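Lab manual, section 2.4: Encoding a predicted structure.

Procedure: take the sequence of the chain (204 residues), apply the prediction step described in section 2.3, and record the output as structure tokens. A sample record is shown.
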Amino acid sequence: MKMKMTNSPQSPWKALCPTQKSLQNHLTNMRDMIHAVAMVILDPDTAHPSLLVSENRRSVKWRGLRQDVPDNPERFDCETCVLGLEGFTSGQHYWQIDFGGGRTWAVGVARESVRRKGWINFSPEQMIWAVDQCGSHYRACTFPDTLLPLTMSPGRIGVYLDYEQGLVSFYQPGMETPIYIFTTSFTGKLHPFFWVYSPITLCP
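Recorded output:
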């Protein structure tokens, strides 16, 4: 993942609510999330060789040493990424990730056809819709990056996908206002996406 920084953060209003359509759908999305909780498990066949996926496939950590695993076409070979096993082509889906105090991660969704080999610029143009933390910086993975108005680590992030509405939104549990909203028109199957240097655990 290449690190690019904008000179200054965008205003919170622009970062949080990029379109009027997003605002109009927001209250409906909050109600839908109650019924959209997905039991996400990780797909070890996609995990970078330096990532160790837990036996129950609900957590993953970076080991620093490459494991002796098959270099199958599904596996990320440069970026320390892993995908969720189940993909989505319709409906609403919500899941939470706990970072355990970690400061280097990215979470979101990626299209099943996302590039797995070589270095990747995380952005919608590369079929990845994600937010990340790198040290004290919080960003939406756009090109160029969009700095987010967060002043401290969220600890947990909720990811909400509405396939038909073309929305991916990110929440701090207990906060009604989204951290960021992507709006687009999806095609193909989407999978939960994780870029891992800090350990992450899927909740509950």
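Check your result against the sample. The domain at 19-60+76-203 is CATH 2.60.120.920 (Jelly Rolls).
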